[in-house]
Amino acid sequence: MPNPASLRETRPVPALAYSYIRMSTEVQLKGDSLRRQLALSEEYAASKGLQLVTEGYSDIGVSAFKGDNVRTGALGRFLEKVNDGTIPKGSYLLVESLDRLTRESIDTAITLFLSILRAGINIVTLLDRREYIAGSTNFSDIIYSIIVMQRAHEESLTKSERISAVWGKKRSAANKKRITSNCPAWLKPGVDGIGFDAIHERVAVVRQIFSYADSGIGSYAIARLLNDAGISTFGSENGWYTSYITKILTNPAVIGTFQPHRKVNGSRITDGPLIDHYFPRIVEPELFERVQYARRMRKAKSAGRKGNVVSNLFASIALCAYCGSKMTYVDPGSRQGRPNLVCTAARRKISCERYPWRYSDFEQSFLAFVREIDLQGLLTERPADDRRTAIANR
User: What pLDDT score does 338 carry?
Assistant: First the structure.
């Protein structure tokens, strides 16, 4: 007798369907857009006998005009799983319309569209229930998709140009009314809706940072001084970082200047000229420029080896006691001995004898002695009548 199990009807395994939802802003998320797109996906999958995968892909507030949804968004993750075989060929990608996939220029858009089909994934646009089947899409479907994607790109381009014009108009009136509520951490938007108000305790910290920098103290040392003093940061709970000190010291907003920016391919670039008198000035321009000049000079004239390890703490500082020439750092290599400080005149055989001093011994001696010196007091002390500073200011 035949096995009853062999008589049972073998049902085909349903193809998988994946919904992709993209919305321009979170405002749409609060409205009906999300529910509508999910409902359309469920309805289509049920009508075609597809298995709708619960793991949907969604990009909320991610730009399809700039291609961010492909480069860094959920659509990009979907395509990665298609390429590595996690999502099998013959699956369906359900989208409300083609403009949810891309709004980039037509050459980029059609390349994306065709690459999905070539990977064996079927595309369905739910609003018109049009199906683009991998391997059997006809010429008229391709032409129709090109028309739809070109129109989507033109709409986004027009919108982008209008927004740029609006921002340009705002920038032209920036001296009378603020462009945006975004501002440095030591300011807050004014209640009048026009300008900004200072957060006095934070302004005091910024001025102290510039005072330290003007005295010759670097960003790393300033961060340590603030952390040691227990001064609160402007948000982070992990203390002051060198990078943030540098960001403050190089930010023209302290002298009231605003530099507009915009994002291009995920990178923040400057957009337009500087706008003076936009923020409240909390540091004098002369002090700001003096600090920038000192930073440039230190960077240009910094001596010693540039690497992960500081080999010589005394580059361009240590002098020969016999002839006054600079002592240079000489590393003969591990096989020939240890590094030494050697008189440059002696190395050149000019008017001095060669008396090398083992670098490690000199460094240990110096550091042991320097513990007795109040470095902070020396760095921050400023005479009442400092002619050098007055000349440097001019």
Answer: 80
CA distance 147 to 113: 13
137 burial level (CB within 10 Å; 0-12, 13-18, 19+):
middle
pLDDT of residue 278: 86
3-class DSSP state for residue 247? helix
Residues designated as active site: 24
Structure tokens of 51?
Answer: 């298995």
Helix (H) or strand (E) holding 311: none
Q: Would you call 317 exposed, middle or buried from its count of C-beta atoms within 10 A (0-12, 13-18, 19+)? A: exposed
- Yes or no: say if 126 and 95 are a contact pair by the CB < 8 Å rule: yes
Within 10 A of 54 (CB to CB), how many other CB atoms are there? Answer: 6
Cα 255 to Cα 258: distance, rounded to the nearest angstrom: 9
Local mean pLDDT, 10-residue blocks, the chain (394 residues): 54 87 62 77 92 86 80 91 93 89 86 92 90 85 82 71 58 62 89 85 96 91 91 86 93 88 65 81 94 83 51 76 85 71 77 82 77 56 57 64
Amino acid at 86: T
Q: How far is CA 309 from CA 118, 304, 306, 313, 340, in A?
A: 52, 11, 8, 10, 17
Residue 189 contacts residue 196 (beta carbons within 8 Å): yes
Amino acid in position 91: S
pLDDT for 389: 61
The pLDDT of residue 307 is 44
SS3 for 87-153 is: CCCCCEEEECCHHHHCCCCHHHHHHHHHHHHHCCCEEEECCCCEEECCCCCCHHHHHHHHHHHHHHH
Q: Which of 129, 110, 119, 109 is nearest to 40 (CA)?
A: 129
Q: 341 near 321, Cβ under 8 Å? A: no
